[in-house]
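Key result, reporting period 2: structure in, sequence out.
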């Protein structure tokens, strides 16, 4: 899927840019639009008064309130049915389709280059044969907050988007990238081990987890590689070739070698490894931003019994923020339609 964003001022389009959406899976358009708006406007320096979209957005009221808070003023989300605005949406859809087609043409071009790249990679890493399935792992967090792990998969040298997977870090408190990486690998390898014990694994399981990798790449250096090898050894998969790629000097670290493997930056094998590592990093950080965005949308109001979505919207529209609700007199909260007993409990909780 491809999203085209246009910038319109005083009725004229002053610019536009495209954003490919990888790993969209079976998500519907309304869900994808919501996810994209969250991701896009979380980092945007400007939020306009009106956001025009081609169709309905999931949780429109919540999204409108969030955008209003981001802008500091009213924001509308509009789905034009006719006129100049609808024509603009149609034009952007055509532009997005053309850009998506160009990406597909480029992918076809890449296919003609993958065989020599895989052969070069196998030679550089001293593998018995070119790896058919490559899995790469990366961790994304800010001081341990909203930590996620990412697994990207390349088969025959090309991305297998439907096998990409995210992992919410569940068991590691605080910033510890090594432990987070180990948690992700343990969970992934447990799924692989479980599938190997079942005769019907291919039919019943998640193919991304039931498929055994020919090569594992880790985004990181010696420390990350050592952490990964511990997990592989414990899980009984130490025979899977595993390497780490450090971004700073683009060095490949291998088990049992004191010195890193250094390849020419323009070598086919290094190009493929960098592409896979960069894709894992992109996938991890994109999901991390989505998780942070969802967290930003959450509110202390969500945990108060009796304050449902309608009352939450009414309170935020009236007072503008949780802090303002916290400082408001009980009678002002009651005036919004909240029963006095609930208003007092709301004040005590906040």
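The corresponding designed sequence is given below.
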């Amino acid at each position: 899927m491809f999203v085209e964003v246009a910038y319109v001022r005083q009725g004229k389009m002053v610019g536009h840019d495209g954003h490919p959406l990888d790993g969209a899976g079976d998500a519907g358009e309304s869900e994808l639009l919501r996810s994209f708006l969250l991701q896009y406007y979380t980092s945007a320096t400007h939020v306009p008064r009106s956001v025009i979209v081609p169709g309905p957005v999931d949780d429109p009221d919540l999204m409108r309130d969030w955008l209003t808070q981001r802008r500091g003023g009213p924001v509308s989300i509009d789905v034009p049915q006719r006129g100049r605005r609808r024509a603009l949406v149609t034009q952007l859809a055509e532009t997005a389709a053309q850009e998506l087609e160009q990406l597909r043409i480029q992918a076809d071009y890449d296919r003609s280059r993958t065989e020599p790249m895989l052969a070069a990679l196998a030679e550089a890493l001293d593998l018995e044969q070119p790896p058919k399935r490559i899995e790469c792992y990366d961790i994304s967090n800010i001081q341990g907050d909203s930590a996620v792990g990412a697994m990207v998969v390349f088969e025959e040298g090309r991305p297998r988007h439907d096998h990409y997977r995210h992992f919410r870090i569940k068991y590691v408190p605080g910033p510890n990238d090594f432990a987070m990486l180990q948690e992700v690998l343990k969970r992934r390898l447990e799924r692989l081990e479980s599938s190997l014990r079942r005769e019907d694994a291919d039919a019943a399981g998640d193919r991304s987890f039931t498929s055994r990798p020919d090569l594992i790449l880790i985004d990181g250096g010696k420390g990350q590689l050592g952490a990964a090898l511990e997990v592989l050894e414990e899980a009984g998969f130490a025979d899977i070739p595993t390497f780490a790629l450090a971004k700073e000097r683009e060095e490949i670290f291998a088990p049992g070698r004191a010195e890193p493997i250094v390849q020419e930056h323009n070598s086919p094998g290094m190009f493929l490894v960098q592409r896979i590592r960069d894709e894992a990093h992109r996938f991890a950080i994109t999901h991390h931003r989505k998780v942070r965005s969802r967290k930003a949308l959450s509110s202390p109001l969500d945990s108060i019994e009796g304050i449902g979505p309608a009352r939450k919207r009414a309170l935020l529209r009236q007072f503008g923020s949780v802090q303002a609700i916290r400082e408001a007199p009980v009678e002002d909260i009651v005036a919004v339609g909240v029963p006095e007993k609930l208003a007092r409990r709301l004040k005590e909780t906040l």
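The longest strand covers residues 145-155. The chain has a mean pLDDT of 83. This case is discussed further under Risks and Mitigation.
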